[in-house]
């Protein structure tokens, strides 16, 4: 995979061309958001959603 340098400390990995994408058109601008998941993550999607909801409730 190729990496694109953004700043000295931050890099991003280019998404695979077959990665799922969300497309949203706002006015005359079309936004394409590609979705990818970490292969090294120890947390399931369900665990992540629960953690995010818990954190949001604690901030209320």
List keywords for this structure.
60 residues; Transposon-encoded protein TnpW; flat; alpha+beta; two-stranded antiparallel ribbon
Put the structure in a nutshell.
It contains one helix and four strands; from the N terminus they run E-E-E-E-H. It is an alpha+beta fold. The strands form two sheets. A two-stranded antiparallel sheet has the order 1-2. A two-stranded antiparallel sheet has the order 3-4.
Describe what this molecule looks like in 3D.
It comes from Eubacterium plexicaudatum ASF492. Pfam families: TnpW (PF14202). This is Transposon-encoded protein TnpW. By secondary structure, the chain is an alpha+beta fold. The protein contains one helix and four strands. The protein has one helix at 45-59; strands spanning 3-5, 11-13, 21-26, 29-34. The strands form two sheets. Strands 1-2 form a two-stranded antiparallel sheet. It has a two-stranded antiparallel sheet with strand order 3-4. Strand 3 and strand 4 form a beta hairpin. The N and C termini lie far apart (40 Å). The relative contact order is 0.13. Mean pLDDT is 79; it is low at 5-11.
Task: List the SSEs and their pairings.
Layout: E1 3-5, E2 11-13, E3 21-26, E4 29-34, H1 45-59
Antiparallel strand pairs: 1-2, 3-4
